[in-house]
Write a structure and sequence with these properties.
single chain, 67 residues, mainly alpha, 3 helices, 54% helix, 0% strand
Amino acid sequence: MVISSVRKLASIRQEIDLLLEPPVTQFGRTQFDAMDKMMQIGYDYAYPLLKEFKENDLCDERLIHLF
């Protein structure tokens, strides 16, 4: 499953406008007890980036409702 995901991401990287990779590498893939912490880290990481993306008019209408 991981290999398939890595291959798929590699194949679509050139087609995407924005790729967010939150700093959650300290957690294991099955560390479900840390899900709340990972979600907060992801939110804290992504929100300012998405806000900047929107302010620079680089996003489509689907993201506008986030801010």
